[in-house]
Amino acid sequence: MMKPMDKSGLTLVATAALILLSGCASTTADNKAATAAPAATGGAKPAAAPAPAATNAGAAAVAPQAAPQAARPPADPTAPKPFAEIIKDAKQQNGLFPIWRKDEKVWLEIPKAMLGKPFLFTANTANAVGERGLYASEMMMDMMAEFRLVGRQVQLVALNTKFRAVAEQGSKAAIEQAFSPSLLASAPVASAEHPERKSVLVDASALLFNDIPGYSTRLEMAYRLPFALDKANSSFAAARADEGLSTLTARAHFATPRIPAPPLTPPPVPVPTPPQSTPDPRSLFVDFVYNFLALPEQPMAPRHADPRLGHFMESFTDLGGDLKANPRVHYVQRWRLEKKDPAAALSEPVKPITFWMDKNIPVKYRAAVEAGILQWNLAFEKIGFKNAVVAKQQPDDANWDNMDAGHASIRWFVGADVGFARGPSHTDPRTGEILDADIMMSDVFARGSRRFIAEDLGMSSEQRLAQLSQGWQNGASSAAFCNYALGAASEMHFALDLLEARGDIAPDSPEAEAFVNSVIRDTIAHEVGHTIGLKHNFKASTTVTQAQLKDRAWTEVNSTSNSVMDYNAYNLPLKGEAKTTINPTTLGAYDYWAVEYAYKPIAPEQEKAELARIAARSTEPKLAYADDADAGGFGPYDGFDPLANRFDLGDDPLAYYKKRLKLSQELWERVQARKPQLGDDPLRQRRQILAGFRQLNGAAELAGKYVGGMHALRDLPGTTGRPSFRPVEPAKQREALQFITTGLMSADSFRFKPELLSSLTLDYNEWDRGTPLNIPAVVWGLQRVALDRLLSAGTASRLLDLNAYVKPEQRKGMISLNEVYATLQGAIWSELKSGSEIDRLRRTLQREHVKRLQTLLTKGSPALPADALSLLRYNATQLQGELRAAVAKGGQSVETRAHLAESLSALSEALRATMSRG
């Protein structure tokens, strides 16, 4: 009995029949091939094949014929063409991934040996839009990536380095299963595998014209328009390849189909305008410099970070074991620096840290830039390295772009609304080794600062940082944000204005030029500090005493701060005081300490103990440290330590803020006393007036940090026994509150002659020329900053909790939240007790105070403690009674009477209203 045939058998039979039919159908072709064969086989004739057997008895006889050759599968029309055919007549650039170019076509060659091998993939912006955070010379994304070949598709995959298993313990596979990598781009293979080179080609345009950096999102953030990458009009502007590196510069075209018509009525939230810096707002080009950089074959030994110092870190979660309470690991980001002669006390490095100075840097500033770079050799010499940092000038006729990953650089760029410098870097995520860095330095010191800084008023530091960092993403954290150049330029121009008004320095004089160069040197030193791994230190300036700041002999040698990594304010003397060093001159004690921790050569077996010894010096007064979060201005970090600030000076910051008020008032007096001269810039006086207000804008916020403030220390548990948090002394809190209420909220602090205000002209050559200077609005801008701080939820919470941080016997005399609210309210409404006239400056402040009370009394605040709301209502009721009495008394001008009546009505309605609770 015959068994039934299974499915596989049927399949085999069907396949055999197809092969047979295929062979029969190709008999003629095979015979032709056989006839031609002798030419290739030396003339030997093929042997005749036997006749095929009949398949059944009734089948007709088949005439004898030559046996068919082995069956050939049909050609695959989709198969890639041979490698040699694709690159015929193309020019090759050898590198990590060889680059082939022919006309407008560009291919990347991917060796089979490089599939699945990690490298560093980075993207930088060489050319950009020039406004709203979209600037040239910007380092962007960096990630460890690899190429994968899936069928005929080449994938560029970013590897997940956020979760690892340092001590594997069987966790590696589980981690890979748990946490996904990301696909950055993919494209079909463009060629068959090369038979000798064992590599394939991929069309670079298909792979890279895909907006890998996510720039369309940044464009949408800036303009609220749907810009998209236009592949058809994108191209490659440049290519470079050498050992260990391949670089392609993609000129990406972004476009939006149309610009929507403006709304008929102004929206409640202002809508950004379309691009203003491009000829056509619908179209713009951005150059992305894509780098494929080989990772070191031998990874650098990592060095663990210590929170008592401030280094940029490579951070990840180590899931390789379960013995540590905290699985987070932080490696110091640093360059690989090794001595040529390890036994020598002072040796040059095997490979120095080399910075290329961009050919766009103006010639007159190049010496200052170089000095700022080389200044760091002072710190490296202390730990045994000679010429650890090198500066090289890019030739003016160079045709290579230093934004590739093969050159650390100082790049000079311009923009329509720009005023900052940044010092980012790209690192090996396995170890924290810095592999590339490109400092972007704007022309803020040459042109941009005066127009850009002058109108930047009335904003808190948080708002300023948010404005400047808009769109700055792609992996850049707030910890890496730096706008020191903007603030330094503001300090520089205020100082120059004041010194010029005093007659100490002439505009456009050699002395003024030297002053500017000293500021550039200091700013470059600051940014180079970032690119060798150092974060900001916003306590360094408070470790110099007031007496030392007045001693010029001391400051010339030791500088005005203990770190160039602080945002250092200028040491301007008051009128009548002796001249001293105005801006920082050299590295400080903290800078030497931070470099020692990161770079000191230490034997592996001694490293843990030696690093602990170095970090333990954190208790030395000169080495006090605080970072960006400590200073505040980022998300929930409002900054509560009054010694951790941007742009303060000396061991008593509050005294510095009082001094700044006096310096601003001196500048205003001198501006009013000087008569305009023929040839003056029309905006000169306006700019100088606003420069003084800008200084006070920062003082308003920073003085407010004393109220409800806490001193913070970074000691590790069990090292010193000092408290981590300690309330600011009550007397100092009251002193700061007094300065705000009687100095910054007093109309007498801001008196200007009518002759001055009426002479402040506009630039009538411009359509966007502004309006006459509104002093009440500018004054309210800085008062608003102080009011924001004193009425904030963070200040209220800390004032309510201060007693919990001190022993019962120490609580006598502590400042309370109600004392702050009552003092503030009494100062704002002081005219109610005196019965005096209320001028416009004061009416603006009082009106805004009532508006805030209205909001809090009717809508509440989810962040504000309930006790704070109760106290605000209590004080508002007190104010209501005082307003009733003042309205009943009368006697002032009609403006004052109307203002008091309106304030009373608004406050009474708020007190009667039922709170809307979310």
> What is the residue-averaged pLDDT?
87
Number of strands: 22
Q: Describe the biggest sheet?
A: 7 strands, antiparallel
Q: Report the β-strand fraction as a percent range.
A: 15-25%
From the spread of the alpha carbons, the general shape counts as globular
Q: Taking Cα atoms only, what radius of gyration do you get, to the nearest Å?
A: 36 Å
How would you describe this protein?
The model is unreliable at 1-67 and 447-479 (pLDDT under 50). The chain has 29 helices and 22 strands. By secondary structure, the chain is α+β, with helices and mostly antiparallel strands. It has a domain at 83-259 and 278-293. Helix 8 packs across helix 13 (510-531) and helix 20 (684-704) packs antiparallel against helix 21. Strand 5 (138-150) and strand 6 form a beta hairpin. Strands 8-6-5-4-12-11-10 form a 7-stranded antiparallel β-sheet.
